[in-house]
Amino acid sequence: MKHYPFIIFYLFLNLFIYTFQGTIWVYIFCFILFSAVVVWGSFDIQLGYFVNSFTHKRTKNKEVALTFDDGPTEFTPKFLDILKENKIKATFFCIGKQIEKYPETFQRIIAEGHTIGNHTYSHSNNTGFLSTSKMIEEIQKCDEIMLKIENFKTDLYRPPFGVTNPNIAKAIKKTKKKSIGWNVRSLDTVITDEKKILRKVTKGLKIGSIILLHDTSEKTYNVLLELLLFLEREKYSTFTIDSIFKSKNNV
């Protein structure tokens, strides 16, 4: 875990308390400040505060990863069509409930050579408040559905919303998953303007970037069309998340 900035911050707080002789208001201020930092660490998966997540690939090649969360959905087949047309493999982090709803689409994702990751069974809005046992249940139930429908196993896991905390960290360890994050977040579920989404993705792109998208809307599909043209124009190739672990330089 990348705790060094937080250790420095902790030492700074102690120095601050010592300097101002530890009055009650100083303690209150420090408590609020420390709480804010912990919340920040919970919601920013790139910090690796609670879980050491893989957020990019160490590579010298001009390549990026396309990852899609929250599927399969009614829109996923269109995403698969355009990826197939462009001979591109992507990584899909699937929700168990959605796999149950669209089993044939899930099977198609696998059949066409894409990589699959676990994105919990229900993608609960209360993910950050679930107990360790409940988080384990969420992950394992998604695994069970993958096995039932396609006899498929994966050790890749992406935390819903990118939220991590001690309970989630324990669940990831217990289920022996690798936590996968990103370093380019499209915010395609929040931003309505397709051009703004595309600009946000392309502006933050670097060699080895992992791009977070969602195969859940026509809007993101349109963004993907333009993004693929951009990648071709800029001579980017693509990689799937499992390739990170095939190189000793990325463990």
Tally of separate domains: 2
**According to CATH, what is the topology of the largest domain?**
TIM Barrel
CATH class annotation of the largest domain? Alpha Beta
How many beta strands in the DSSP annotation?
8
Q: Give the N-to-C terminal Cα separation.
A: 13 Å
| Tally of DSSP helical segments | 9
Backbone CA Rg: 20 Å
**Which percent range fits the helix content?**
40-55%
Class from secondary-structure proportions: alpha/beta
Label the CATH architecture of the largest domain. Alpha-Beta Barrel
Shape: globular
Binned strand content: 5-15%
The CATH superfamily of the largest domain turns out to be Glycoside hydrolase/deacetylase
Low-confidence stretches: none
Main sheet record: 6 strands, parallel
Overall mean confidence score, pLDDT: 89
Order of helices and strands: HHEHEHHEHEHEEHEHE
Summarize the structure in words.
- The protein has 251 residues and is of the alpha/beta class.
- It folds into two domains: 4-43; 63-250, Alpha-Beta Barrel (TIM Barrel).
- 46% of the residues lie in helices and 12% in strands.
- It has helices spanning 4-19, 24-43, 76-85, 96-101, 103-111, 132-150, 166-174, 194-203, 218-233; strands at residues 63-71, 91-94, 115-118, 156-157, 178-179, 184-185, 210-214, 237-238.
- The strands form two sheets. Strands 1, 2, 3, 6, 7 and 8 form a six-stranded parallel β-sheet that branches. A two-stranded parallel ribbon has the order 4-5.
- The chain is globular and about 65 Å long.
- The model has no long low-confidence stretch (mean pLDDT 89).
